[in-house]
Design goal:
- The complex is a heterodimer of chains A (456) and B (488).
- Chain A has 10 helices and 21 strands.
- Chain A is an alpha+beta fold.
- Chain B has 488 residues and is an alpha+beta fold.
- Chain B folds into 2 domains: 5-236, 2-Layer Sandwich (PmbA/TldD fold), CATH 3.30.2290.10; 239-487, no CATH class.
- Chain B is 22% helix and 40% strand.
- Chain B contains 10 helices and 24 strands.
- In chain B, the strands form 5 sheets. In chain B, strands 1, 2, 3, 4, 5, 6, 7 and 8 form an 8-stranded mixed beta sheet that branches.
- In chain B, a hairpin with a 4-residue loop joins strand 5 and strand 6.
- The chains are: A alpha+beta (456), B alpha+beta (488).
- Chains A and B meet through strand 1, strand 2, strand 3, helix 2 and helix 4 of A and strand 2, strand 3, helix 2, helix 3 and helix 7 of B.
- Strand 3 (61-67) of chain A pairs parallel with strand 2 (45-63) of chain B, so a sheet runs across the interface.
């Protein structure tokens, strides 16, 4: 079903229901998912993910229901369910009503590639065959996934709102492993694009092989402070967590966010600039959120100063500002709510990671982080996590011996106050836990990040 | 009958289609319908009242030795037949990249029906009553105003109905009902520092396989004054001092400890390397079976899919293996994995019945069931009284563990210092870190059955694309020595 057809379908359901105040948001996602492990293609799936959320208002009373049945019968049932809820819930005084039509549709960079939309199971297999062969020939074990995804999204409301969008995403992640499942050296590569032809599987595979070879026989590190060069994947993981605990209007109102009561104040260093730029080039997102609001560019941190928060229509009404178009639909893990869409971390002047490594002199180079958690003390953005898939000592301004999985625990905002460099280039990293959202991040040089010894 | 007649007919048609292909050596056709209600009250107003429905069909099949999977939400014969053709096409396309053909041990299919015993159907309880059951505790948490900044209570109910038909002859119907309720208060001090206190647990561990009766069991209103007082007390508490200490983990914190440091590393697909692309591997490798000392002799951990009330309880897993109970760690020794038919067979073992998918459009895979610590004796207060110098840590705040499930760090909402058998003061921002076998090897006391609360989590993440699964852990508080503690 095309996005226009999806809009037509839910628009017809809305008209037929005759509700005076209602909104329907729908997505129809098709995913070809080729997951490989232990050196072979072991989980190859053709997935469909329909989802539709209906909201019905009775004045300030709002009911919500969702369904996976994208047909007239299923949509009618969801509208009736939302209506039953709306008739029973108490009023929400701040409910601002549903979104009006936009004054104009924004112009987006290209978000759709036929090559991705039309990719077949045979094509995914053909693209992966040289990946698996290269890693096997290197005496290593391959693991990872290649996904080709096409998404159609639409939203309509009784306000006259009617918008739709189609996009594609191609994503490749690869590991080259010394051993299949137990401890051992690992190298990683990844690439994300709207266009499966632009992924560069060979280069990412080569990078994974190189790091796995270099990572054999790792040593430990001394507990304490180490200067680190964090590759873009590692930076993205920290910023993604920062967004979860700090950038939403709800967390600010509850007082748990590092931004609470500090808007306009410096809460980190001058090198930390974070914006949500959903409509920009470093994004995979469509033009509107689940409420149909055009996604806004929002400056969250500017040279370390807290500048703004993300809102949906309800929280915008509560805090007296317009929605930033940051409403997300519910997922298996979250009830839906406010979140960033396409975070962009400002780059610096360094032409390459190698330049940052030279600048660091001595320290650690970290390719990726693992199991970061930012709930220790959200107000200070204290986080902990481990490094994974490539961690090396920096010795004499060059990469040296591998190190095994040390753990850091530090305030990320305080750590970025000790940032002394960043690459000009940014890499787009999709959120690993969700099909929505991304972070575009540079590599950075942070001085004196706090590590425990790594006890393995 | 759980699956409506037309649904069963469509599944039978899909199975017949799969049988008609000469290349197909096994096919499992499933139908899954889910219903969910989620209600949240924030600071006295409903923050979200959501009712969700989901239904669809899936097929997993083996053709030319390769797996194929496809799904559809469309309840029509043409759609389910096309689904089978899609899965076959995926399998045939994948076959040339196989190193080994899938070895799936044959078995006669079981037939039967399983249903959660429910006292009060949660979907029959009026919304007004549910809102009242949440609004009252939120009002109590907010009573008195600052420093309480925000208070929230929630409840969630899920019903999963499924039908599994296989070419082996399995015909299994199940209806599972899950639910839970919880609350939290956030206090903010004059210095801007915030402290959160939750009940009965945090991180979503408040669920059980039960009906609406679970809400009364969680006693939100009865605990509101305590939760509010503890949140405020934490604002003035000292940070937890650093050092190696004897620690007692409260029941819900121990549940997360079991989850992360025993549940996940005993998943055989992780150990064999099939989960690298999201979760990682496992330090518990097959040659260690039956010999590796995982914990002290007090420690027995069991995979139990028949425990009443557990989120990991069912009649059969999604491969048709009947539910059961098997030790993973027996008196400290690692003895078995959470496994599937295919992975268990690769070790010459039988499946421990753990394979599940989180919905109709996801591939079934090894998931934790109810992975529980066997109780020993005594109460929590007796254990505290038996501790000369230590800490009692409870209610999880943060969790982090490495990709082999060895090096972990957790922090807790609350800690109490214990001196000469008594809790002497509350401490804030406590965290502890250790290495899995050293930590479990230091276990020197485990409370008895009366303290072994069952904690259910419905959002255990695993798989690629990621799936959210219902799991549970019975966790009697236990004591560990020489644990590195500190504060954030």
């Amino acid at each position: 079903m095309s996005a226009a057809a999806l809009a037509e379908l839910i628009g017809a359901a809305l008209r037929e229901a005759g509700e005076p105040e209602a909104e329907i948001h729908a997505r129809d996602v098709r995913r070809g998912y080729a997951r490989f492990a232990v050196g072979e293609l072991c989980q190859h799936m053709q997935l469909v993910e329909p989802a539709c959320t209906v909201r019905v208002a009775r004045g300030k009373r709002v009911g919500e229901a969702s369904t996976t049945a994208l047909d007239p019968v299923g949509l009618r049932a969801a509208i009736e369910e939302a209506t039953r809820v709306a008739e029973r819930v108490p009023e929400e005084p701040a409910f601002p009503g549903f979104a009006p039509p936009p004054s104009a549709e924004p112009t987006l960079p290209r978000r759709y590639a036929e090559s991705t939309a039309r990719a077949t199971a045979e094509e995914r297999v053909a693209r992966l065959e040289p990946v698996l062969r290269a890693i096997r020939d290197a005496g290593l074990v391959a693991s990872g996934a290649l996904e080709t995804r096409v998404e159609h999204e639409a939203v309509v409301a009784t306000t006259g709102l009617r918008r739709h969008h189609s996009g594609t995403v191609a994503a490749f992640r690869v590991w080259a492993l010394e051993r299949a499942g137990g401890p051992g050296a690992a190298g990683h590569g990844n690439a994300t694009s709207i266009d499966v032809d632009a992924l560069g599987l060979a280069a990412e595979t080569e990078r994974a092989i190189r790091d796995a070879r270099a990572g054999r026989d790792p040593g430990g590190i001394e507990a304490g402070e180490h200067d680190v060069v964090l590759a873009p994947d590692a930076v993205a993981e920290l910023i993604e967590w920062l967004a979860m605990i700090a950038f939403g209007a709800r967390e600010i109102a509850q007082g748990t966010s590092a931004l609470a009561g500090r808007l306009g104040e410096a809460i980190s260093g001058e090198r930390l600039d974070v914006r949500d730029e959903p409509l920009g080039a470093l994004s995979l997102a469509g033009p509107f959120d689940r409420e149909g609001t055009t996604r806004a560019a929002v400056t969250l941190l500017e040279r370390g100063v807290a500048r703004g928060a993300l809102t949906d229509r309800l929280w915008g009404s509560r805090v007296g500002s317009p929605s930033t178009g940051s409403a997300h639909p519910p997922s298996a893990f979250e009830p839906g709510g406010i979140g960033p869409t396409a975070l962009v971390v400002a780059g610096g002047e360094a032409e390459s990671e190698a330049e940052l490594i030279r600048q660091a002199g001595h320290g650690l180079y970290v390719r990726r982080l693992h199991y970061v958690n930012g709930m220790l003390e959200p107000r200070r953005a204290v986080m902990t996590g481990l490094v994974r898939d490539g961690a090396f000592r920096i010795e004499g301004g060059a990469l040296g011996r591998p190190v095994r999985s040390p753990r850091f625990t530090d305030s990320v905002l305080e750590a970025f106050a000790r940032c002394e460099g960043a690459t000009r280039a940014r890499t787009l990293i999709p959120n690993w836990w969700s099909a929505a959202g991304s972070v575009a991040a540079p590599a950075v040089l942070l001085r004196r990040l706090r590590f425990s010894a790594g006890s393995r | 009958m759980i699956a409506p007649g037309p649904v069963r007919a469509l599944c039978e048609a899909a199975l017949a289609r799969a049988r008609s292909h000469a290349d197909v050596t096994l096919a499992e056709v499933r139908w899954v319908r889910q219903r969910r209600e989620s209600i949240r009250v924030l600071d006295g107003a409903p923050e979200g009242v959501t009712r969700a429905g989901s239904a669809g069909f899936a097929v997993r099949l083996i053709a030319k030795g390769a797996w194929g999977f496809a799904c559809t939400p469309v309840a029509a014969e043409a759609a389910v037949l096309a689904m089978v053709d899609d899965a076959l096409a995926v399998a045939l396309a994948s076959a040339p990249l196989l190193v080994r053909r899938v070895a799936f041990p044959p078995r006669d299919g079981a037939r039967g029906r399983y249903e959660t015993p429910v006292v009060v159907d949660p979907f029959s309880v009026p919304l007004d009553r549910k809102l009242e059951d949440l609004t009252a505790p939120v009002s109590a948490l907010l009573a008195g105003g600052p420093p309480i900044r925000s208070a929230e209570a929630w409840m969630t109910f899920t019903r999963v109905e499924k039908l599994l038909l296989t070419t082996e002859g399995a015909d299994l119907e199940q209806r599972l009902t899950y639910g839970g309720a919880g609350m939290q208060a956030i206090a903010v001090g004059d210095d801007g520092r915030a402290q959160r206190r939750s009940h009965p647990a945090s991180a979503g561990f408040e669920q059980l396989q039960a009906g609406y009766e679970v809400v009364a069991r969680r006693e939100l209103l009865a605990n509101a004054d305590r939760v509010r007082a503890e949140a405020i007390e934490l604002l003035g508490a000292e940070p937890c001092p650093a050092g190696a200490r004897e620690v007692i983990l409260g029941s819900s914190q121990l549940a997360l400890q079991i989850h992360e440091s025993c549940g996940h590393p005993t998943e055989l697909d992780r150990a064999l390397g099939f989960e690298i692309s999201l979760a990682g591997g496992s330090f518990l490798q097959p040659p260690m079976l039956g010999a590796f000392r995982y914990g002290s002799p007090l420690v027995t951990l069991t995979a139990d899919s028949v425990a009443p009330g557990g989120l990991g309880t069912f009649g059969w897993d999604d491969e048709g293996t009947p539910a059961g109970k098997a030790p993973l760690v027996l008196e400290g020794v690692f003895v078995d994995y959470l496994s599937s038919r295919e992975t268990a067979a690769s070790l010459g073992r039988a499946s421990t019945a753990t394979v599940r998918a989180d919905g109709w459009n996801r591939l079934p895979m090894i998931r934790m069931v109810n992975v529980s610590l066997a109780p020993r004796e005594g109460t929590l207060e007796e254990l505290v009284a038996d501790t000369a110098d230590g800490l009692l840590l409870d209610t999880n705040k943060s969790w982090s563990i490495d990709d082999q499930r060895l090096d972990f760090q957790f922090s807790c909402e609350v800690a109490w210092e214990i001196r000469r058998g008594k809790r002497v003061r509350m401490l804030r921002d406590a965290r502890y870190a250790d290495v899995t076998p050293r930590f479990w090897g230091s276990c020197n006391a485990i409370c008895g059955p009366s303290e072994a609360q069952l904690w259910g989590l419905s959002t255990c993440g695993k798989g690629d694309p990621i799936q959210a699964m219902q799991v549970a852990h019975a966790a009697p508080p236990a004591r560990f020595t020489g644990v590195e503690v500190g504060h954030s």
